[in-house]
């Protein structure tokens, strides 16, 4: 198996292809690298796709939930991956939470990034109920309560939904991710470890404008959690960004993006 290990954890990844042009591909919350394997349909002979499993997902492990992930630690993991797999420059593809980590990697290693493909990326501006990996520390007691006493939480959500104050798609997303106690614990520990990671959006914008690398932004027309309106203040400041809105919701965006790119490159 392929792992990058450190005293903080071990990051699992898989590789498709043996080319010299490298793509790092990052999945969303509650997923694993398997959910991004559809992108293999786009790989050309000279390319190599590296599918990462983020911590608390797939076979990746974080050793101490009391020790939060930092930008310095994440950069060290990527640098170790570069050294182990013998590459310097690379492309980034990220969906949802993976989009946030793609942007984070660009923030930290912009001179080595050749392109950015973002699918409904988290970390810019998304709905309160969705940004699981971005909640502030004041939510510690709230999340702990949700893990051990979920009835009140779900009752509140259903009440807001019935009153028309909360989108049904968001209710469904949260219920799917937090149905069992183990799932709720997964959300809680992911929040504890990832919660301190905040993107420096101004820096990312400046870097993208300076480097002029291709930036593709895919959004779902019916996505209520990551919308054009929420991301427009960010995306409008990057002249070369290409925004593609596909007729799907949040959960169908990976498949439809691959379909779109297959037709474009055919």
Please explain how this structure is put together.
The protein is built from nine helices and nine strands. It has 266 residues and is an alpha/beta fold. It has two domains: 2-127 and 198-265, Rossmann fold (3-Layer(aba) Sandwich), CATH 3.40.50; 132-191, no CATH class. Strands 1, 2, 3, 4, 5, 6, 7, 8 and 9 form a nine-stranded mixed sheet that branches. The protein is globular and about 50 Å long. The protein starts with a strand and ends with a helix.
> Segments where pLDDT lies below 50 for 5+ residues?
none
Q: Biggest β-sheet, characterized?
A: 9 strands, mixed
* Element order: H for helix, E for strand: EEEEEHEHEHHHHHEHEH
Gyration radius from CA atoms, angstroms? 18 Å
Oligomer: single chain
CATH H-level superfamily title of the largest domain: Alpha/Beta hydrolase fold, catalytic domain
Helical residues, percent: 25-40%
Mean pLDDT value: 87
Q: How many distinct domains?
A: 2
Q: Counting H and I runs of at least 4 residues, what is the number of helices?
A: 9
Q: Tell me the total number of β-strands.
A: 9
What is the CATH class designation of the largest domain? Alpha Beta
Would you identify the CATH architecture of the largest domain?
3-Layer(aba) Sandwich
Strand content: 15-25%
State the secondary-structure class: alpha/beta
In whole angstroms, the N-to-C terminal distance is 33 Å
Outline type: globular
Query: What is the CATH third-level topology name of the largest domain?
Result: Rossmann fold
């Amino acid at each position: 198996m392929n792992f990058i290990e450190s005293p903080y954890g071990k990051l699992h990844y898989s590789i498709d292809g043996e080319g010299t042009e490298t793509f790092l591909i990052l999945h969303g919350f509650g997923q694993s690298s398997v959910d991004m394997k559809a992108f293999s349909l786009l790989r050309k002979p000279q390319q190599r796709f590296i599918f990462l499993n983020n911590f608390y997902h797939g076979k990746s492990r974080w050793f101490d939930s009391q020790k939060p992930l930092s930008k310095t630690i994440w950069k060290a993991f990527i640098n170790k991956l570069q050294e182990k797999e013998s590459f310097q420059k690379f492309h980034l593809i990220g969906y949802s939470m993976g989009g946030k980590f793609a942007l984070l990697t660009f923030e930290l290693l912009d001179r080595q990034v050749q392109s950015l493909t973002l699918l409904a990326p988290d970390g810019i501006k998304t709905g309160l109920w969705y940004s699981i990996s971005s909640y502030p520390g004041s939510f510690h007691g709230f999340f702990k309560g949700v893990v051990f006493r979920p009835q009140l939480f779900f009752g509140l959500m259903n009440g807001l939904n019935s009153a028309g104050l909360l989108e049904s798609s968001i209710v469904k997303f949260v219920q799917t991710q937090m149905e069992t106690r183990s799932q709720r614990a997964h959300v809680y520990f992911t929040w504890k470890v990832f919660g301190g990671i905040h993107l420096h959006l101004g820096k990312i914008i400046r870097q993208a404008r300076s480097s002029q690398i291709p930036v593709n932004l895919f959004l779902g027309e019916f996505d209520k959690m990551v919308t054009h309106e929420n991301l427009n203040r960010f995306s409008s400041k990057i002249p070369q960004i290409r925004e593609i809105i596909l007729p799907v919701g949040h959960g169908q965006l990976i498949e439809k993006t691959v379909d779109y790119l297959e037709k474009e490159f055919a």
